[in-house]
């Protein structure tokens, strides 16, 4: 067995990782302006050169966009010309039902992996997004951002970069479809509060590292949504 020496992680890479994580987890929203290079350097307690290198890398990868004279902004979802999924779907009508059918395959497997690999921070972010959704539900309003943040937290917990990229490409469709679904749940007899309850159950199973039951819980969660949107219960 050949071992390689452990090398310390470059500061710019650590800055890159933290900003990328904030974007992927939904803490930095699409179109949001991030702190200036000077502010980031102060917040991270690193040199501006390290911050600049991280930002350049994030820009090259499509996470950020630098606008002359205005600052640096989050680019999620990816610009249309860089998003293969958007290009493929251009001119086609994608229904919420079709998207849910795809999500069942993607996200049930993601939940299985998350139950194996999720960190305490991943769990915390799932719980926070669910708490935010619960608050909105009590106020009688939809909150697609909190719902999307929950599913993105699970995606990130897979530690599978390809899965995260696919979910990033789906982001725009995901946000619109979840907003529509929540609106129907509010208008129908089925209470939207059950969505947050299902999120809590999934999170608890991930926390317990119960892969099979977490998989099944996500399957029930998304399958109910699919059946609901297909049924006459939906106002659509």
Features of this protein?
3% strand; mainly alpha; 2 strands; 236 residues; Four Helix Bundle (Hemerythrin (Met), subunit A); globular; 2 domains
Folded structure, characterized:
The chain is mainly α and 236 residues long. It folds into 2 domains: 11-74, Winged helix-like DNA-binding domain superfamily/Winged helix DNA-binding domain (Arc Repressor Mutant, subunit A, Orthogonal Bundle), CATH 1.10.10.10; 82-230, Four Helix Bundle (Hemerythrin (Met), subunit A) (Up-down Bundle), CATH 1.20.120. 67% of the residues lie in helices and 3% in strands. It contains 10 helices and 2 strands, in the order αααββααααααα. Strands 1-2 form a two-stranded antiparallel sheet. A hairpin with a 3-residue loop joins strand 1 (64-67) and strand 2. The mean pLDDT is 84.
Describe the protein's topology:
Layout: H1 11-24, H2 37-44, H3 48-60, E1 64-67, E2 71-74, H4 84-89, H5 96-117, H6 120-138, H7 144-157, H8 161-187, H9 193-207, H10 211-230
Helix pairs in contact: 1-3, 2-3, 5-7, 5-8, 5-9, 5-10, 6-7, 6-9, 7-8, 9-10
Helix content percent band:
55-70%
Query: C-alpha Rg, in Å?
Result: 19 Å
Sketch the major β-sheet: 2 strands, antiparallel
Structural class: mainly alpha
Give the total of domains.
2
| CATH H-level superfamily of the largest domain | GntR ligand-binding domain-like
N- and C-termini, Cα separation: 60 Å
Main sheet: strand order: 1-2
Query: Overall mean pLDDT score?
Result: 84
Secondary-structure element pattern, one letter each: HHHEEHHHHHHH
Query: What's the CATH topology name of the largest domain?
Result: Four Helix Bundle (Hemerythrin (Met), subunit A)
């Amino acid at each position: 067995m050949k071992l390689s020496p452990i090398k310390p992680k470059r500061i710019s890479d650590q800055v890159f990782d933290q900003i990328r994580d904030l974007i992927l987890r939904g803490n930095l929203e699409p179109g949001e302006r991030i702190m200036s290079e000077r502010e980031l350097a102060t917040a991270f307690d690193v040199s501006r050169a390290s911050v600049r290198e991280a930002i350049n890398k994030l820009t090259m990868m499509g996470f950020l966009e630098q606008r002359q004279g205005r600052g640096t902004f989050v680019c999620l979802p990816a610009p249309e010309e860089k998003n293969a999924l958007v290009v493929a779907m251009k001119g086609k009508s994608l229904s919420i039902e079709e998207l849910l059918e795809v999500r069942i395959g993607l996200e049930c497997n993601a939940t299985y992996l998350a139950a194996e690999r999720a960190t305490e921070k991943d769990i915390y972010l799932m719980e926070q997004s669910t708490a935010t959704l619960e608050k909105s539900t009590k106020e009688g309003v939809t909150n697609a951002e909190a719902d999307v943040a929950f599913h993105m937290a699970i995606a990130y917990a897979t530690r599978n970069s390809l899965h995260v990229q696919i979910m990033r490409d789906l982001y725009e469709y995901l946000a619109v479809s979840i907003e529509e679904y929540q609106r129907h749940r509010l208008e129908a007899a089925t209470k939207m509060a059950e969505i947050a309850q299902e999120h809590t159950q999934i999170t608890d199973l991930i926390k317990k590292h119960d892969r099979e039951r977490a998989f099944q819980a996500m399957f029930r969660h998304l399958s109910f949504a699919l059946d609901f949107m297909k049924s006459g219960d939906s106002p659509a």
